[in-house]
Amino acid sequence: MLHSVLRHPVRLARHRLSCLPLLAALLLPLASASAQSLPPPVVGALRVAHIPQQNTGVLVIDTEGSKRVLVSNNIAQPFNPASVMKLVTTDAALEMLGPTFTWKTQVYIDGTLSAGVLNGDLILKGGGDPKLVLENFWLLLRQLRARGIQDIRGNLVLDRSYFAPASYDPSQFDGDPQKPYNAGPDALLLNYRTQAFRFEPDAASGTVSVSMDPPMAGFSITPPRLSQEPCGDWQGKLMLNNDASGASFGGTYSADCGARVWYVHPYRMSNVQYVGASFAQMWADLGGRFNGRVLDGQVTPSARMMVEVQSPPLPEVIRDINKYSNNVMARQVLLTLGAEMTGQPGDPVNAARAVRGWLSDKGIDTNGLAIENGAGLSRIERVTPGLLANVLLQAWRSPLMPEFVSSLPLVGYDGTMRRRLKSQGVAGQAHIKTGTLNDVRSIAGYVQAASGKTYVVVFLINHAAAPNGQKAQDALLQWVYENG
Predict the structure, then answer these.
(1) What are the structural domains of the chain?
(2) Which of 147, 155, 223, 430 maximizes the CB count within 10 A of its CB?
(3) Model-level pTM?
């Protein structure tokens, strides 16, 4: 099985890998990929889906030295890759930042601390951690309590300067700003900036109980009315009105729905308000006191650090990004590349420049590449099948290959591929990243054929009928497994 490669020893990379002599022999010149027609099962599936072949970019190539091309179609044409763009972002991060890289969140005090009372400000400095979840934030605050801080008689200052200030419109992409995938990046991103509403109908009392994570100080919840109608579109029936002061459910919740959870992006609440309200509630739950304001700011020269917590290492983070296609985490990683590689606050421009430089250093042609946020949740991001294949080829020969490959969904088993091809021979034999937009369907990754050879597979579809293209992509994966 392909995932058996994950058991092999790994030689840790230096801060930036240098393997140009190897790559010179490894990379695929676009001109060398002579046209190989699409396999008959793929052609048939595309015909049924009413997707012209000119709207597809396909490349299948042997990972070994021969670089034998099995299939090639439009490999130099730029396509919108959707979430397959995350492969470029995460592989660049793994090599440029290194496999031991972690993000740091720090807490400073600016004032005097005596007998549990802080006469001054508490400063939270964000380091761009993509996985500052509630459990880790609670541990950070617990450490502060252990350091003797109980009563904060000053303000809570949020230092978010690791990323450049930017305006972000969560409705710009698809007009649905409360979807969790539309949350924007932030140097102090807590809990992916989402709210989880849990609904529990109680038929005996005729009411609905609503709880929320994270709990927030000063945030009120007005529950919906209990109904006996079919569950149906239960989220639409709730009629949510959500802002910084609270959530009001003006509609109904059906008893037929049972217990359910709804994840929401509170787009009418600023990140300062979100972190501040979460902090105030958790701090009170830990027995602390705080009555100050929550402000944007920076660590002052007179401040001293009290606590630092670190994220999980980068390979664990990219595993969450690629297996579950987490958009805001991918945005965080791209901006981190900008900050770490340029020494400036991370922004999309310097981050894209860093990725282009990394590709160019490897001899990979960046023509046709357009990077907006590194997550693929974009109408303007573009990549060629040839570029994607070359990224995957060099990743396969990298000392960090096990970390990268294991971050991709295993076909038929987990992530976004867990329900696909479960009964086919390729199940368990391929690690494949998926990408989905209204007019985009994409796959890219690795297939270990029945012959024992491993192939890079890229299949991008840009067409109005792209949602019907999954069968063609699945047909290609099975065909490579059987014929490679």
Answers:
(1) 2-100+314-483 (3.40.710.10), 104-167+270-310 (3.50.80.20), 195-264 (no CATH)
(2) 430
(3) 0.93
